[in-house]
Amino acid sequence: MNRHHPTTTRKPQYLRFEFTPDFVRRPYLIYVDADVLVRGDITDPLGSLREDEIGAVRDEFNPAVGECPALPGAAERWPHLRGRPYFNAGVLWTRTGHMPVVRRGVEHALIHGRRHILHNDQDALNLWLLHSGRVRPVAAGLNRFETGRFLERGNWVGRVVTRSLRPDPAAALVHFVGPEKPWQADCPVTEDVAEYRRHLTVALRHVRRLGAFGAEPAGAW
After folding, report:
1. d(CA 96, CA 154)
2. Above 80 in pLDDT, residue 141?
3. Which of 130, 159, 163 is nearest to 145 (CA)?
4. Can you say whether the dihedral through the CA atoms of 135, 175, 191, 155 is positive or negative?
């Protein structure tokens, strides 16, 4: 859902910010990336959102501005931003009426702050949030990164994430960030990956029964 919009090169857009209130037709929107496993209720943040806020969880790999690769040069240009939280765009909560404002803010950041953009629309979202202050921090368990796949290849994640790296059964949502996805055959089969695949098997069974099943993606498990 975060592919580059093909209609323009001067004003790049990403599909997670292309939803409109008329399309959603609900007072709230919870956006989730495709590479997530929802285990529990993730609606709680909606009750605390103001009209002009977007809910987001601090990024576990890029936790703070100026202390990670994200938003290169931003802390030097605006020293007061150093150490401020940096948020992951894979799970977002917002009131539907606020969506056009979010879209315009991200678009402005992509165009005018492009020297500070490394992680595409996620950096742009954070740049706008830092300057607008329109973010409601959400509990970490609502966007918990799955780290076991990375530990299979090395221990760099242990130097970045300070919490326990064992699976968190209390997490309402597990996010499979990074290039290795749980539906890929060569993805390490961690506990969370195995759980994802069990749910995927059931979901695909229902899809097939509905007659709406296309070709399997290349390299699928």
Report:
1. 41
2. yes
3. 163
4. negative
Any long-range contacts for 17-22 (C-beta under 8 Å, 24+ apart)? Answer: 17/99, 17/102, 17/103, 17/106, 17/107, 17/121, 18/103, 19/99, 20/99, 20/100, 21/96, 21/97, 21/99, 21/100
Q: Are 134 and 92 in contact (CB under 8 A)?
A: no
User: 109: closest CA among 14, 20, 19?
Assistant: 14
Query: With a threshold of 0.90, does the pTM exceed it?
Result: no
Residue type, 150: F
Distance CA 208, CA 212 (A): 6
Is a pLDDT exceeding 50 seen at residue 7? Answer: no
- What rounded mean pLDDT belongs to the chain? 90
Two tokens, residue 194: 């195995």
Distance CA 152, CA 159 (A): 15
Greatest pairwise CA separation for the chain in angstroms: 56
Backbone angles phi, psi at 31, to 5 degrees: -95, 135
Inter-axis angle of helices 120-132 and 99-112, to 10 degrees? 110
What are all long-range contacts of 197-204, with beta carbons under 8 Å and residues at least 24 apart? 197/221, 199/37
| Of 1 and 61, more confident | 61
* For the chain, percent of residues with pLDDT exceeding 70: 90
Higher confidence at residue 105 or residue 3? 105
